[in-house]
Amino acid sequence: MPAFVAPPFLDSVPADSYFSVLHPLVFAYVVLLCGLGAFQGLLFARKKLFFGCPLCGTSAHATHSTRRYLWLDCPKCGALEVSLKPGKTRVRKYAP
Ligand SMILES: [Zn+2]
Q1: Are residues 79 and 60 in contact, defined by beta-carbon separation less than 8 angstroms?
Q2: pLDDT number for residue 15
Q3: How far apart are CA 7 and CA 48, in angstroms?
Q4: Which one in 34, 48, 53, 76 has a CA-CA gap of 20 to 30 Å to 21?
Q5: Nearest CA among 55, 59, 62 for reference residue 77
Q6: How many other C-beta atoms can be found within 10 angstroms of the C-beta atom of residue 13?
Q7: How far does the centroid of ligand 1 lie from the alpha carbon of residue 65, in Å?
Q8: From ligand 1's centre to the CA of 38, what distance in Å?
Q9: Are 54 and 43 in a shared domain?
Q10: Residue 80 pairs with which residues in a beta bridge?
Q11: What is the distance in A from the centroid of ligand 1 to the CA of 27?
């Protein structure tokens, strides 16, 4: 009796398939993306995350966000609310 029984999803890809070669690469890519997301989350939690201002391009401090909006504090434009819908960037200015 084997000491380790592989889960069924590991047996589903044949060893001579192209997917068996791509599987470690895709796994490494997903781990890299998760690590970058975690790093960005840590920067945001420590108030050290900056984005380019959509109006002037200056580095703007990301102050807080929701699921739909991101608030930036641009040194030139002031406080901005940026919509995060893909393809529909909308900027609202709060301070002169
Ligand atoms: Zn700006």
Answers
A1: no
A2: 73
A3: 42
A4: 34
A5: 55
A6: 14
A7: 17
A8: 26
A9: no
A10: 72, 93
A11: 38
Q: CB pairs under 8 A, 24+ apart, for 59-62?
A: none
CA–CA separation, 70 and 74 (whole Å): 12
pLDDT range class, residue 30, cuts 50, 70, 90: very high
**Tokens, residue 44:** 């945001």
Which residues form the domain of 15? 1-48
Report if pTM > 0.70: no
Q: Same structural domain for residues 17 and 38?
A: yes
Pairwise CA distance, residues 4 & 82, whole Å: 51
Q: Do 92 and 56 share a structural domain?
A: yes
% of the chain at pLDDT higher than 90: 51
The tokens describing 52, both together, are: 């380019």
Rounded to whole angstroms, the Cα distance separating 23 from 28 reads 9
